[in-house]
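Hi Y.,

Following your request, here is the sequence exactly as I used it, all 347 residues.
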Amino acid sequence: MKSLENKTGLILDLFFGIVIMPLMIFLGSVSHIWSISPRFAFITVVYLYLVYVLTRLVNVPRIIIKKSYWRLGGMAVGMIFTTWLLTKYPLPEMDFVIPSMSEYQTRVRNHNIAITVWLLFSVTLSYSVSVSFIIELYRRILLQNIIENQRNKAELALYKAQINPHFMFNTLNSLYSLIVGTSQKAEDAFIKFSELMKYTYLNAENDEVLLLEEVNYISNYIDLQLLRFNGHTKVIWKYEMDDETVKIPPIIFLTFIENTFKYGASSSQDCEVYIELILKEGVLNFKTSNRIMRNSDEFRKDAPIGISNCQSRLSVLFPDNFELKVKEEEGWFKVDLTINICSSILI
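Below is the corresponding structure, written out as tokens. Let me know if you'd prefer a different format.
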């Protein structure tokens, strides 16, 4: 996807650089300016290229999405002021027999050149901003297509393995009645497993769930995983929320948590897994940390794929409002995900 996006942007940039700008130079008023002052014409052309490059680099659509209006306003004021300074460039005076006419014609010529500079600046800025919006729209369409494709694959897999929910829940209730009284640990584990299955089935098609429900889901998942590791794996699970009404897409953290247990837990060696979720003032921070205890070759082959899929999903759900940092250092694998919930618009 990144390759397609880059190629599209490169094509549009080259079109401006080798088609539109040369046409403005050789067929427009710049050629007349060149005959008056080659240095001024050269400075004008270089400035227009810089305007285009700068506007493309700062990515105006993302600035608007992030609501960085002061940054956008500052850039606009800076460009307008620089363009105004360019129109004040001292050009050679025109030479007429009557001195008063020379002065008048020089003022008229300078005024026309100033209008030309403003026109060229407007065309360059308009084209560069338009290209930025086209690329951003194209990027979002590609991301949306990727997510739709992943969603269709997930739904197909679910259909293939799907059991009638009512039948499954009735069966779980019947099995629970058989183990009641046999073991308190078995009863607790069965209840947690039932809650996990209900949460997964009931929220599979929901766009949003309460963050509190997701936290409960993670807690049940951790408790069930700990039953497998005979007390050798210690999980430090911490969560804090200053707003329990916040909603998020369901099961967006599961891949990261699954990786911590798949590669960072052990039933024969003592180890620790750290999982943290903090919501404060509209910013959600999720972290995991674990030593790579087993399946290291599989981890380095498969884990990046799962994380890449998660990043694609996050890019669609929280465009330009999340930051995902993943690193491996000294045998530890760490994930740090920050989402600006308040500024996000879920798709």
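The chain has eleven helices and seven strands.

Thanks again,
Q.
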